[in-house]
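Write out a record, fold above all:
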Amino acid sequence: MNCIKKLLNKHKDELPFILAFLVYIILIHLCTREYAGDALQYFKKVLGNYSLLDGAIMRYNTWTSRVIIEIPLYFIAHNMHVYIWAFLDIIILIILALSLMKLTQYKQNKLIILLIILYPFTEMSSAGWIATTINYLWPLALGCTSFVLLDKMYRNEHISLLSIPIFMLCELFSTNFETFSVFYFIILTYFTVNMIIEHKFTAKKIVLTVMQFLISIFNICLALVCPGNWMRNAAEVTRWMVDFNSLTPIDKFALGVLDTSSKLIMNNILFLLFTLVLFVITLKKSKSKLVTILSALPMCSVLLITVLFPLSQNYLSSYSLLFKRSTNINPMTFNSPLPYIAFAFFVIIMTICVVLLLNAGKSVKSGILVALVFSVGFATRVVLGFSPTLYASLLRTFIFLDFSMIYCIVRVFDDNKELFENNKYFSKYSLVIGTTFVIFYALNTLIAISSKY
C-alpha cells in the first residue's frame, strides 16, 4: 500500500494524463465495429478447416512468414471474440506506453501520452481492426518491450531470471514481422558495438545478446526462405501493380522513397511536430543563420502542402506536383524529369532531418541513436517499394516510422529541455496549447471511428 502511495505521489502531476489516456483507448475500443476485414472474411475459417500446426504450415507455404504473429489471430478470429481482442488490445497499448516511458527513463511521460494519442488509430481498421492491430500494433508494442531488455543491459540494471523468457518471447513475436526483424537486428548491433567499446559485457549479457541475435536472425531467414512470401508477391503483382516486374531494383528503391516521403509530408501530423521540434532546437542552439534556415526546410515542406497550401498554390503552383502519383517511377515516367526532381527533393529533406537529429542529441552517442532510429524506421516503409502492395497497404505500414518519430521527439526534447525550462511562459503555454490540440484531435478520431469504422 505504501508503495502505491509513493508511486502516486511521485507521478501525481502525470495522473490526469494517464487517466485520460486510459479513457481514450477504452473509448476507441467501445467505438470500433468489426463488420468486415481479414479476420471475418478469412481467419475465422482457418481453425475450422485445419489444426493450428497445419494452418500455420499452409500459410507459410502459400502466403506469409508471419506464422507466429498469426497464432493469436487464429484463436481470436475463430469465433470472433471481439471483446477478448478489445481487452488484449488495450493491454497492448498500455504495454506500448509503459515501454516507451521506460526507454526514455520516465522523464517525459506526459509528452509520450500526448504523442501516442496523436497516432492515427483509424489506420488500424484498414484490413479490419482485429487483423490489422495484431499484425502491426502488437509487434510494435512487444518490440518496444524487447528494447527495454537492451536498455537494461546497457545501463547495467538488474535483469531477473523470470523476465528473460518474457523478453525473448516478445522479441520472437515482434521480429516475426519481416521489416521489424531487420529493425531490431540493426539496433541490437548498435548497442552491442557500444557495449564492446565501453567494456560493459558480462557473461550474462553475452548470453542474452547471443540469444537476441539468434531470434532476430531466425526470423529474418524465416522471411527470406518463405515460399509463401514469393507466391504472395507473384499474386499481388497481377492484382495491384502489373508493371512491377519491369522496374529495376533502383526504380523500386526510388519508388519507396517517393511514396514514403510524399505521404509522410502530406498526411502525417507526427512528422510536422517532429520537424517543428528539430527547428526550434536548432533555432535556440545554432549561431549560424544558414544552419537555421536549412533546419526550417523540412517544416516548411510540410506547411506548404498542408496549412499554407492555398498560398503555395498561388505562388508555388509547381510544388504540389512533387506529391502527385504521376511523379512515381513507372515505365510511363522514365523520360520525365519530374520523378527525379521529386526524388532529389525528398532525399534532401530526409537527409536534413538526420543531420539535425545528430546535432540535437545531448551527446554524440545520443545523436547517433536517434538518427539511427529515425533512419531505420524510415527504411521500414521505403522497403515497401520492393513490394507490389505499396499502394494497397495504405498508411498502416507507417506505424514503425511513426513511433520511431515519437521516440526521437521525446529523446531530443529531453536532451534539450534546459533550452525550454528557462522560459516559463513557453513551458506553460506550450503544454496548454498542445494538450488542447491533442484533445481536439482525440475527439475527432473518436467521431471518425464511431461514424465510419
Summary: The chain has 21 helices and no strands. The mean pLDDT is 88. The chain has two domains: 33-240, 242-422. The radius of gyration is 22 Å.
